[in-house]
Design goal:
With 188 residues, this protein is mainly alpha-helical. The chain contains 6 helices and no strands. About 7% of the residues have low confidence.
């Protein structure tokens, strides 16, 4: 019992000592805070930037500039040149990135398009399955999605056919070039 009383007394004494040492330290920091000189006032906040219409026009991304140039809207007023409901005209020529320079490039592009067609066909099949299993209120939306995806799939297939035709043209050109090079003897 004497040991428990001794430990208890030591614990109380240690806690009292700790509280006694902490109180003057905290009182000292409070008094230092109150005596802050007037010269150290908070700095004034920076004025807010107010954008005008002229400045907002300069905040155009490269993508905006490209779209404007592509559709002939250099001044950025799309609403005045084309109605809101009108869609941009579909491009007639094949995209610049699908114009192969060599037969090898054409093979790579055709393989890419084939993988794309396969993935899109798989997606169309999944949408058809979803339509069969969907509640009635979702079926109309899914049918619209299906029609859009079928159109995209058809466009991708036509791009692939265009690439195959371009590959044939490249093969003809390389055959003609190699034939004309063999017909010309070297003059050395």
């Amino acid at each position: 019992m004497k040991i428990v009383n001794g430990i208890l007394f030591s614990l109380i004494l240690a806690l009292g000592l700790a509280v006694g040492l902490c109180a003057p330290a905290s009182a000292q920091t409070d008094s230092q805070k109150k005596r802050r000189p007037a010269k150290q006032a908070k700095p004034a906040p920076k004025p807010r930037k107010v954008w005008t219409d002229d400045e907002i026009g300069s905040l155009r991304s490269p993508a905006d500039i490209y779209v404007d140039a592509k559709y002939g809207q250099a001044d950025g007023t799309a609403a005045t040149k084309q109605p809101v409901s009108a869609k941009p005209a579909p491009h007639v020529a094949s995209p610049a990135l699908s114009n192969p320079k060599t037969v090898g490039d054409a093979d790579k592009m055709i393989a890419w398009e084939k993988r794309d067609v396969d993935a899109q066909t798989e997606y169309v099949e999944r949408v058809k399955t979803q339509i069969e299993e969907a509640p009635q209120e979702d079926k109309e939306r899914l049918k619209k999605v299906l029609q859009e995806r079928i159109q995209i799939l058809a466009d991708t297939r036509s791009e692939m056919d265009t690439l195959v035709a371009q590959k044939r043209e490249l093969q003809k050109k390389t055959a003609a070039n190699s034939g004309s090079a063999a017909a010309q003897p070297s003059s050395q």
